[in-house]
Amino acid sequence: MTAAATESPRIPAGSPIAGALLTVADAGLGTSVQDLGRPGLAHLGVPTAGPADRRGFTLANRLVGNPENTPALEITLGGLAVTLSRSRYVSVTGAPAPVTVDGVPVRAPALVRLPAGARLAIGRPWAGCRTYLAVSGGLEADRVLGSASRDSLTGLGPDPVRAGTVLGVGPARPVPAVPLELAFSPVPGGGAMTARFHWGPRHDLFCAADRRRLTTTAWRVSAQCDRVGARLTGPPLAIGSVDLPSEGTVRGAIQVPPSGEPIIFLSDHPVTGGYPVIGVLTDADCDLLGQAVPGDELRLVPASSGGPRRIP
Amino acid sequence: MLRRAGDRGWLIDCHALRPAQLAVAIRERRWARELREVVPAARTVLVVAEDRAGMDELAARLRALLDERAEGAEGTGRTGADGSGGTGSATAPRTVVIPVRYDGPDLAAVAERAGISPEEVARLHSEGEHTVAFFGFAPGFAYLDGLPEPLRLPRLTSPRARVPAGVVAIAGGQSVVYPGGTPGGWHQIGTTTTRLWDVTADPPNRLSVGDRVVFRAVAP
Predict the structure, then answer these.
(1) Which of A97, A113, A173, A240 is most enclosed, with most CB atoms within 10 A?
(2) What ipTM goes with this model?
(3) Nearest-CB residue to A201 (from B11, B36, B140)
(4) In chain A, where the domains are located
């Protein structure tokens, strides 16, 4: 990647090579551009970032014919409204939410032909919190360190999306014929979820009673829940003070700070941490937690126990 | 010792081995291309695979590498600079020279606490043998080992809110050149105009884990 290559081409709206523009009329509570992030740079202190719910995100891109790593919008708790300068297929996935085009409800938002100038609005999700909007051809946003993902921890990547933000859209891609009833990604329903995890790397710093407490407690997702991590509330684990120098951490790490209430790392987590990690969520269930909202109940189940795998 | 770190991760407790050297040795293996991340830290190396299939095979490879390195370390002293035991670095560590003006706002205080003159602080720091141990805290924030003993101080009690790029600072047994845009609780002893971290460059980092660093004093 050279400095010049980080500049995305800007295609004028009327260009014959069929680029388009997406204009944000309303950005909601928190909307950002994401792709699959910056893997492979943790040894330089760079978090991966990328979507909080990778399954929901990649599904949106696949439905409109984009490669999985194509920049798209992550909308937290709805409130987004956009228009396109040219008619395009778009996909709305992730947390299910009311979707309208010029005020008319859309029955199947997983694939929508959005006419030029029509206003697509995404409301507050019925379940989960993060909805994805992909546009056929993909969004064009400035790439930093090879990615267009906005990293909320370090500020790397494009600016947060605001009302008035205009993003380029690449030439439309052929949209695959997919039975939309299969176009589904899991989102926790009914405010309760079960997430599987692997013990370690530092579970041996906890006593047997605390390890049991981790798996028997109905944890609650606290209000301190963002793209960096989700703090849980429940009976504290007795970690006391351990002398553990910082070590590399992964997405899904269940870190136990001195307060004893676990924090689970999500997409924008710091690359190293100094609190012991008692376990790590499976990749699939990290996506589930990326949809958690404050107040949700969370049960943690060891992945190796062979217990029933609950599809929410 | 290997510890599980999720679907695709192993965390290696390094014990007598240096994490930076182990991380370099891992990256030189042919199978390292199947790895997404190799992250050295103070006493560990985190290894994350691209795919979760083959975690047992990865563990066996890491254990074999650790055994070879441990034998090598015994033969050449605990953390011999080469410590290769026949399996070490194919590439010798690079040396990066960083010109520093020793004019930092904490230079006088560091000198006073060490019981030496500011000139002596600059001399000790620039004659020290520094190596890049690991990155962390923020993008481009490289922890450099090798701070001479008289300069070792705990961090500032109240950190500064924002430290510009190029500030050279010390704390504990380590030095850092701030990458810019972060808060900072280290003692600022100088500045460099050499850009060590630039997210618009490829690669963004001038320093790599395992590199030797020479701070060369330049006139203020």
Answers:
(1) A97
(2) 0.90
(3) B11
(4) 4-182, 192-305
What does the pLDDT look like over A5-27, one tens digit per residue?
Answer: 444 444 444 444 578 999 999 99
Strands (E), B71-195: 95-101, 130-135, 142-145, 160-163, 167-171, 174-177, 182-184, 187-191
Separation in Å, CA of A295 to nearest CA in chain B: 25
Contact list, A271 vs chain B (CB under 8 Å): 39, 135-136
pLDDT (tens digit, 9 = 90+) per residue, B80-101?
A: 344 333 344 556 789 999 999 9
The contact set of A with B (CB < 8 A) is: 1-3, 6, 39-46, 144-145, 154-156, 198-202, 245-253, 270-272, 277, 280-283
What stretch(es) of chain B map to CATH 2.40.100.10?
95-218
Phi, psi values for residue A211, rounded to 5°: -65, -40
Q: Which residues belong to CATH 3.30.1360.40 in chain B?
A: 2-76
What is the third-level CATH fold of A192-305? Answer: Cyclophilin (2.40.100)
CB contact under 8 A, B5 and A201: yes
CATH of region B2-76? 3.30.1360.40
Q: Do A248 and B39 touch (CB under 8 A)?
A: yes
Architecture of domain B95-218: Beta Barrel (2.40)
CA nearest neighbour of B216 among B116, B93, B96: B96
| Mean pLDDT value across chain A | 90
